[in-house]
Amino acid sequence: MAISKHKILVILLVLLGINYNLNAQVSLGLQGGMNISKTVVDNEIVQPQISSISSFTFGAIINYKINSIISLQSELRYLQSGNEQNLGNVEKITDYFHYLEIPIYAVATLPNLQTAPIVLIGINFGYLLKSTSKYYFHNDDFTQFYNRANISLDVGVGVMHPIFRNVWIQLSGRYSYGIYNIEKELGNRKTRGIQVLLGILYDI
Question: Is position 87 within any domain?
Answer without folding.
Answer: yes
